[in-house]
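Read as chain and fold; for instance:
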Amino acid sequence: MNPNRLYFIDAVRAFAILMMLQGHFISTLLDPIYNDNTKTIYNIWYYFRGITAPVFFTISGLVFIYLILKAKAKGCDKARIKKGLERGLMLIAIGYLLRIPFLGWLYGSFNTYFLIIDVLQCIGLSLILLIVLYILSLKKDRILSVVLLVSGILCFLYEPIYKDLNFNRLPELLANYLTKANGSIFTILPWFGFVAFGGFLATIFFRHVHKKRFRLITSILFFIIGYLLITCSSWALMKLYYLTDVEIFKASAYYNYLFTRFGNVLLLFGVFYSLENFLKQSIISKIGEKTLSIYFIHFVIIFGSFTGVGLKHFFYQNLTPIEAVIGAILFVVVVCFISFYYVKTNAFIYKQIRKLYFKLKR
């Protein structure tokens, strides 16, 4: 086993992708009359659904920057940067590809639905932005650490200001990365903030992961800082407002879900990192290695990518809780089975995109 490899990352990614699978299935197919926040089981489900995306974005930044820093230590960060740019562009391309209504186009039905932004486009663009910040930081990990930390804080702190900005003058292709007005699921702000915080954590891991008792100390810090962000971040922002009279601290305190969500992410990291020795080479880690394949497959099955026909078109908001739970379990099993036995690795998806790219280039 490589002592400097972060095995818990795959476990976290596996948890996030499984939560996403069941979350998309239930939220898309469950009858809305059962969305009852007075029920404990619903609130638990809603909680885990709410932290899935923050976990995905944070872990993406952590993995990406950690790999770049490791490559730089070996003197080959240029190759990693090139690969990162390719991956970022491919994620953006796949994000658009999954929403293109090919059959509709064949019948002459055109709309701008495929231009809306989802998680893949945001992560792809975030990876490109991380490369830009890495270069601007002169490839120094300590400078990068500060830049990423400040970037994450600013993304979260200023959301009350930029969330209501009007981007109507921009082309819809660009505006969709900044506003949900046209139907985008995610926007680059504030979600890049989670990626930046993940990158900041990567710089910490890179410098200290080899040290004795690092896992123990870091796991404890994950729990402590996570708990403080959840319970005290709004209070701290108000204290800063009283001390400085800067209005943005007050606005952020009254609209504070980003810092608390990041606190939840840290708690989850604390759980998985403290259990890392039990997760090495486990089935959950193997699932974490196939997140892109799983995402691709589940999107086709639920939302009907390419064909226009998916589970959504037959059972949209029509299932009872028992049907939704049983269906979600079967759905998770089927998607993972297909990913394991028919799509061997995430590289399969990248390989197909590369083939398409070179065919178009010719």
User: Anything to note?
Assistant: The chain has a mean pLDDT of 89. Residues 29 and 316 are 5 Å apart (CA to CA).
